[in-house]
Specification:
240 residues; Arc Repressor Mutant, subunit A; Chorismate lyase; 2 domains; 8 helices
Length: 240
């Protein structure tokens, strides 16, 4: 019993000390913490005890492990308000980080049966598809796919989709985005997504699908975003 209590106290002390280093600014987001061997020597405990303390910090989102590289201080998660229709850039700037967008591909493609049904199109109709990589402060944070129906796609295809879709729409069409039907689910990263986002294959992602409408009632299109689960969460107020 005494031994067990000693071990618990040891890994709680390691956890507490690392939190103090982070809170004081001694170590910052992206910094590597000491190795397990270094922590074992510093605290005079076994590696299993060190791992216990680190695992608790990883589970709570304070640290992140990178296989074969080390354990690092995680960047704070960005809160996405689930009851407000905000674009990625608005959301990022509201949290004090600098957003950027890289267009990976843009082409006309055949809509899948599910996509055609969602967009109210006949089968085999082509839609404008734009694939984008979103970053905050230079770090990959999300993959975003836009699917625009033909009428809207032809009006917007010449524009720079490295900018906010909502801003482009308001400028080009003279109609702001009014509302969206949103669906959120937890998924895991496939190999392509993992490589682009810099996460492990099978890592947790937050999949957000929106069917967005303009203020005049027209359907703007369908967007699907895959956010890194270690960097994003959805916040909702629920009233009874």
């Amino acid at each position: 019993m005494a031994t067990s209590t000693h071990l618990i106290a040891a890994y709680l002390r390691i956890e507490q000390d690392i939190r103090i280093l982070i809170d004081s600014g001694t170590v910052r987001a992206g910094d590597r913490i000491p190795t397990e061997d270094e922590l074992c020597d510093r605290y005079g405990v076994a590696k299993m005890t060190v791992r216990q303390g680190l695992s608790r910090l990883v589970a709570s989102g304070v640290l992140i492990r990178r296989r074969g590289i080390g354990t690092f201080v995680a960047a704070p998660k960005i809160e996405r308000a689930g009851n407000r229709l905000l674009g990625f850039e608005e959301d990022a700037r509201a949290h004090g980080v600098q957003p950027s967008t890289e267009v990976l591909a843009k082409s006309w493609v055949d809509a899948t049966p599910d996509e055609a049904e969602t967009l109210g199109l006949s089968p085999n109709v082509q839609v404008l598809r734009i694939d984008r990589l979103r970053r905050t402060d230079g770090e990959p944070i999300a993959l975003n796919t836009i699917l625009l129906p033909p009428v809207i796609g032809r009006l917007l295809e010449h524009l720079d989709f490295g900018r906010s879709l909502y801003a482009l729409t308001a400028e080009a069409l003279g109609q702001p985005v009014a509302y969206a039907d949103q669906r959120v689910e937890a998924v895991t990263a496939d190999r392509d997504q993992a490589a682009l986002l810099g996460v492990a294959y099978g890592a947790a992602l937050l999949r957000v699908q929106r069917i967005t409408h303009l203020s005049d009632g027209r359907l703007l299109g369908l967007t699907r975003s895959h956010y890194r689960g270690d960097r994003y969460f959805i916040a909702l107020r629920i009233e009874r």
